[in-house]
């Protein structure tokens, strides 16, 4: 299928760009001996799991459904962490997991023996209490965080139940933030690390971003493995699909209200919710910032939400109905978070291969909207 034939809105993922990211990640694995997992919470396009599985060690999941998806569609290592596991799901989670990470010692006491008796590798999430970011909603080390055990609440007598420790403190950050976090981990939990088989550095590592300091990352990994004799895992999600996908949309109408406004067939609230949640202004191919080019437009969605605004952009020519726009970096935190608020149809999902040919791997209809309701 030609790209111009894609019906909008449509998520378009470039297979070659995904593979470019995977080659970078695999280079880190080969040079250090660490294992890298796909964090499915950021990117769960399982049509590409056979490709991803050629490079990465497996998947990281946040619960039963992701664990099942990773195990059934990739079939490699399956690591699961949840702030709290449900009694009625835990035995099924064991079917689809190899590593189970607990968020508290109470959860470890409740489920740990069952996990070990099932042959699973058991871990505990720790909280090094060292914030390195400004996004409060994504900071697991903020005061009062529910994520991870602090040193004050650590119970060393339960160490024999553990194979590994896990921390996740970063969000779209470079390896200097990891280095700072590791200093806190060593300070608070270093005495326990020689007894561990593995340590998981979590996600949030922007390894495939241009300018990321991979050398520093690899030194952090190698130093930890040599110092403690333990295997290092990383579980980035964004890095796997960073800058590898687009959201293709069409201008439906243009209106004026003090400024020029273009209404698109895609919604920030429904199709790219991180635009409102983070918030941030997504890149748009061929556009500029306000006043950078000749014609300014505010881009908004077709829902009834007044705040369904994607951002202000400028263009060389005025926008008109029928124009196609391409938002960049739309593979991550889109398909996994979108919704049908206001009865909005979900964008179809397409993959562009290395020859430029496109294939639609999923399309949605009224029945997908109706099936979520009752």
Integer-rounded radius of gyration: 22 Å
Shape: elongated
Q: How many H/I helices?
A: 11
> According to CATH, what is the class of the largest domain?
Alpha Beta
Tally of structural domains? 2
Architecture overview:
With 374 residues, the chain is of the alpha/beta class. The protein has two domains: 128 residues, Lyase, Ornithine Decarboxylase, Chain A, domain 1, CATH 2.40.37; 209 residues, Alanine racemase (TIM Barrel, Alpha-Beta Barrel). It has eleven helices and 16 strands. The strands form two sheets. Strands 1, 10, 11, 12, 13, 14, 15 and 16 form an eight-stranded mixed sheet that branches. Helix 6 runs parallel beside helix 7. The protein is elongated, with a radius of gyration of 22 Å. The chain starts with 9 loop residues before the first strand and ends with a helix.
């Amino acid at each position: 299928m030609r790209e111009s034939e894609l019906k909008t809105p449509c998520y378009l993922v470039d297979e070659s760009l995904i593979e470019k990211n995977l080659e970078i990640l695999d280079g880190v694995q080969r040079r250090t001996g660490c294992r890298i997992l796909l964090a499915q919470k950021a990117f769960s396009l399982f049509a590409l799991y056979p490709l991803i599985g050629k490079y990465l060690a497996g998947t990281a999941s946040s619960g039963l459904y992701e664990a099942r998806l990773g195990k059934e569609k990739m079939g490699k290592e399956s690591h699961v962490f949840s702030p709290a596991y449900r009694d009625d799901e835990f035995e099924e989670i064991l079917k689809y997991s190899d590593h189970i990470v607990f968020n508290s010692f109470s959860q470890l006491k409740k489920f740990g023996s069952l996990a070990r008796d099932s042959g699973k590798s058991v871990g505990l999430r720790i909280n090094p209490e060292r914030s390195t970011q400004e996004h409060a909603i994504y900071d697991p080390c903020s005061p009062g965080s529910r994520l991870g055990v602090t040193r004050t609440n650590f119970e060393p007598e339960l160490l024999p139940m553990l194979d590994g420790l896990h921390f996740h403190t970063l969000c779209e950050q470079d390896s200097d933030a990891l280095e700072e976090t590791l200093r806190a981990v060593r300070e608070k939990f270093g005495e326990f690390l020689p007894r561990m088989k593995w340590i998981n550095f979590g996600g949030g590592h922007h390894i495939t971003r241009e300018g990321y300091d991979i050398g520093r990352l690899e030194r952090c990994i190698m130093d930890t493995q040599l110092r403690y004799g333990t295997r290092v895992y990383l579980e980035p999600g964004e890095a796997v699909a960073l800058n590898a996908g687009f959201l293709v949309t069409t201008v439906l109408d243009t209106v004026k209200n003090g400024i020029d406004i273009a209404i698109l067939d895609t919604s920030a609230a429904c199709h790219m919710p991180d635009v409102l949640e983070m918030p941030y202004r997504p890149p748009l191919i061929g556009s500029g910032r306000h006043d950078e080019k000749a014609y300014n437009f505010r881009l908004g969605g077709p829902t009834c939400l007044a705040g369904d605004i994607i951002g202000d952009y400028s263009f060389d020519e005025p926008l008109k109905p029928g124009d196609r726009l391409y938002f960049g970096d739309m593979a991550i935190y889109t398909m996994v978070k979108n919704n049908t608020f206001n009865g909005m149809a979900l964008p179809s999902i397409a993959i562009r291969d290395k020859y430029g040919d496109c294939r639609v791997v999923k399309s949605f209809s009224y029945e997908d909207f109706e099936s979520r309701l009752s």
